[in-house]
Specification:
513 residues; Aminopeptidase; 13-stranded mixed β-sheet; 3 domains; alpha+beta
Length: 513
């Protein structure tokens, strides 16, 4: 009605046409079709893919609009459109309607920013899919680690990723390695370790490489690319090429420490971003030494820790030992720590996706340590007359110590050997000049007493297909969180019986996905 009334109010140079005749005519039919196409087309920035309006249709419409208003003369006539224009416009509109019914492309057009002109040279993106390809990157990967010196990227380091892949080589394409790399002037400037799980018959998910063993999702980025280069545009190109080449149902980049502004910007508008938790850590730069740290504790806390230490000293000779990856005794401490952790999980009725794996202790025991930089795997323990009664397995990485796994002798739980071990590790970190003691993101009540800072962890998710949307909404955001809450709320006796069943269900879901 709006178009009809508009046409009625404008005089014509030729014979006047009534509103009814105007609506039914071919000329006005093309006008209505164009206007309907414009009204129904959503702006490109609100869609996953490029605009549904074709360039030819857009150009034709713009030309028609200019011609329409330019034709206003003193007599107020409306110029008749040529037949070729009406035919091409209707054809383009119908083609646009057909394209809108097809699957939406998963990525948006890259935003026009100043990063569109790389200041560090042309960026070339590649995807490594084999263990041999990963091994070929060793020298460049390690050089990028040293340039970046990012303390939050141990789980993206070459040592961690290559060691994990060696223990996941069963069958064809066992790891599903998808390592995205970016090069500028033939120099490696970005490494993004990912992996593909599932198959065409199930849900194809793109996840951080080494999940669920890894605790942080991240990428290693050259400082030059961060400060002067097109980092956001590079990440967007990586996502576009990854989705186009692999056709995943779901891209889930989980447990990413906050701090990189380019990553949220790259996912914004094309996916979903949500906060999934926090990692607790101790900022050790606030203390001059261990004595200063101890003085800043409250009096009740100091007395409680001293009482636990004295009770443990009454059992025999207590020592604190530290072993680094590759040293004699490192593997023995790792195996002792994993075994004590398994007993604790069984006694407390907690399911696990990682610790009960047969090769878990061997995997941790194979992680190396670099004596030149001090980075790598470290195991420390409290021993009672030479026998480990509390073990902590962690990783030192550019001034940060990751407390990856802590365990203690269940039979001595009343003496709190695990807390004595925590205190000794903090002492050791301060003596070594380590700046942060990271307890990672798994929630636990004890962490509040051993941390003074926290970092938000975010999840970035793309759902290119309906299958991926269904999996993310039904399993990841509904069934699994509800089942976890029920397990935590169940009585201890019921949890101990349900934990093995929960582990089998989780493994089955990961394989099917």
């Amino acid at each position: 009605m709006a178009i009809a009334s508009t046409c009625r109010s404008r005089p014509s140079t030729g014979p006047r046409r009534c509103a009814t005749t105007m609506r039914m005519s071919t000329r006005t039919g093309s006008c209505v079709a164009i206007w309907a196409s414009i009204r129904r087309s959503r702006p490109p920035d609100r869609r996953f893919g490029p605009s549904s309006r074709s360039p030819a249709c857009t150009a034709s419409w713009a030309s028609a609009r200019r011609t329409r208003w330019r034709s206003r003369s003193t007599s107020g006539s409306i110029r008749r459109r040529p037949a070729a224009f009406r035919t091409s416009t209707l054809s383009n509109w119908r083609s646009s309607r057909r394209r809108r019914r097809t699957r939406i492309h998963p990525m948006p057009p890259r935003a026009a920013t100043t990063d569109d002109i790389p200041s560090v040279g042309e960026i070339r993106i590649e995807i490594v899919r084999t263990a041999d390809g990963l091994a070929a990157l060793e020298a460049e990967w390690r050089a990028l680690e040293r340039r970046a010196a990012d303390p939050m990227t141990y789980f993206q380091s070459f040592d961690w990723c290559s060691t994990w892949c060696r223990f996941n080589q069963d069958g064809y394409d066992p790891c599903g390695i998808r390592i995205v790399t970016a090069r500028s002037r033939d120099r490696l400037v970005l490494v993004w370790p990912l992996m593909m799980t599932g198959s065409s018959w199930t849900v194809r998910r793109m996840l951080p490489l080494t999940m669920p063993h890894g605790q942080y999702g991240n990428m290693i980025v050259d400082p030059d690319l961060q400060t002067d280069g097109p980092l956001r545009a590079t990440i967007e190109d990586c996502l576009q090429q990854l989705v186009a080449a692999e056709s995943p149902d779901l891209v889930s980049f989980t447990d990413v420490p906050s701090g990189c502004d380019e990553l949220p910007a790259a996912f914004d508008g094309s996916g979903q971003i949500e906060t999934v938790g926090k990692s607790a850590w101790m900022d050790l730069t606030l203390f001059e030494d261990f004595e200063d740290y101890n003085r800043q504790l409250t009096r009740s806390v100091r007395k409680g820790r001293k009482r636990k230490r004295n009770a443990l000293d009454g059992l025999g000779r207590i020592e604190h030992v530290v072993k680094r990856g590759g040293e004699t005794g490192f593997g023995d401490l790792v195996r002792a720590g994993v075994e004590m952790k398994r007993i604790w999980l069984q006694e407390t009725g907690r399911p696990t996706r990682v610790v009960n794996r047969d090769d878990f202790a061997d995997f941790l025991g194979a992680l190396p340590h670099d004596p030149e930089t001090g980075n790598g795997a470290i195991a420390s323990a409290i021993t009672l007359d030479g026998r480990p009664i509390a073990v902590e397995i962690g990783f030192r990485w550019f001034g940060r110590f990751y407390s990856y796994l802590g365990s203690f002798d269940w039979s001595l739980r009343d003496y709190s050997p695990g807390k004595v071990q925590l205190e000794e590790v903090i002492r050791w970190c301060l003596e070594e000049g380590i700046e942060a003691y990271d307890l990672l993101g798994e929630p636990a009540t004890y962490k509040s007493g051993w941390s003074n800072s926290s970092t938000s962890l975010k999840s970035y998710r793309l759902e290119p297909t309906l299958r991926g949307k269904a999996f993310a909404s039904v399993w990841s955001r509904s069934i699994r969180p509800a089942a976890k809450s029920m397990m935590e709320a169940a009585p201890l006796g019921l949890r101990t019986r349900l934990a093995p069943l929960a582990e089998r269900i989780t493994k089955a879901s990961e394989k099917s996905a």
